[in-house]
Every structure is written in structure tokens, then in C-alpha cells.
Recover the amino acids of this structure.
């Protein structure tokens, strides 16, 4: 019976020691959990930032492409644009659309906002790239209070042969 009480005391002593360690173990695990949450938040924030940067890069690439520049330059000298929006004509730095190049060729379909002293509109352009040179296929201006789009392509005159 003496060993029973002694064994009980040893067990009770071990239990007290383990119970004394419990707060530090729980604190350690809670610190690990907090670190994991911080890491997860960091990875999420980093991923979100990378997505935002990629999207901004795609919009910037489209907005400042040679096809978009060509469309804007043509719109600036169009009598229809000058009459509708006035001069000087400005554009937004954000463009939407598709831009695809391969070798010396490619195609683009872009749209972006333009504005002048008399109002604002949306410019729509389709272009093709032949031998590293962009050519407009279509160029239209959409005005907010006017149905349909205005064609800004210059009239091509043909000379009979």
C-alpha cells in the first residue's frame, strides 16, 4: 500500500508539472497560429497585388500600343471629332480590348474614352499590323446622347486605272 500512495504522489507531481507547462505550450501554439495567419494574409495580399499589377499592365499595354496611338492620332484630326468634342482632344489612360502580335503581323481591337471642351465620348478602333506597320480597319466615335456610332475613317478615293 505504501507503493500505491507513493505512485499516486509521483503521478500527481507529474500531472502538476505538465499542467504548469500547459500555458507555455498553449502560448507557443497560439503564436504559431498567429504567425500562420499573418503569413496567410501576407500571401493573400501579395497574390492580390500581383493580380492587380498584371491587370494594370495589360490595360497599359493596350492603352499605349501603337494601334491605340494611331487611332487617337486619327481621331484628333477627324472633322467629326473636332465638331463633336472640340479641340484639344484628350484621352483616358485606361483602354479596353485585345492586342495580339505575332512576328511582323497582328491585330488589335481597342476602346477608350476621349474628351474635349464640348464633351466626351468613346473611341472604338480595329487595326491590323502588316510588316510591322499598323493600319486602321475601322474607327468609330460613340457619343453619350447620340444613338449609334460615328465613322471617323477618312474616305478613301480610288483612282480608275
Amino acid at each position: 500500500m505504501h507503493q500505491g500512495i507513493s505512485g499516486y504522489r509521483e503521478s500527481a507531481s507529474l500531472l502538476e508539472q505538465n499542467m504548469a507547462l500547459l500555458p507555455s505550450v498553449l502560448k507557443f501554439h497560439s503564436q504559431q497560429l498567429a504567425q500562420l495567419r499573418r503569413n496567410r494574409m501576407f500571401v493573400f495580399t501579395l497574390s492580390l497585388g500581383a493580380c492587380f499589377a498584371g491587370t494594370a499592365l495589360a490595360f497599359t499595354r493596350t492603352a499605349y500600343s501603337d494601334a491605340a496611338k494611331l487611332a487617337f492620332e486619327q481621331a484628333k484630326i477627324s472633322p467629326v471629332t473636332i465638331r463633336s468634342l472640340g479641340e484639344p482632344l484628350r484621352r483616358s489612360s485606361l483602354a479596353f480590348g485585345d492586342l495580339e502580335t505575332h512576328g511582323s503581323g497582328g491585330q488589335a481591337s481597342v476602346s477608350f474614352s476621349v474628351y474635349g471642351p464640348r464633351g466626351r465620348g468613346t473611341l472604338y478602333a480595329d487595326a491590323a499590323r502588316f510588316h510591322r506597320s499598323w493600319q486602321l480597319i475601322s474607327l468609330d466615335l460613340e457619343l453619350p446622347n447620340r444613338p449609334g456610332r460615328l465613322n471617323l475613317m477618312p474616305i478613301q478615293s480610288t483612282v480608275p486605272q
In short: The first helix runs from residue 2 to 63. Residues 1-63 form one domain. The beta strands are 90-102, 105-116, 119-130, 133-142, 149-151. The chain is about 50% helix and 30% strand.
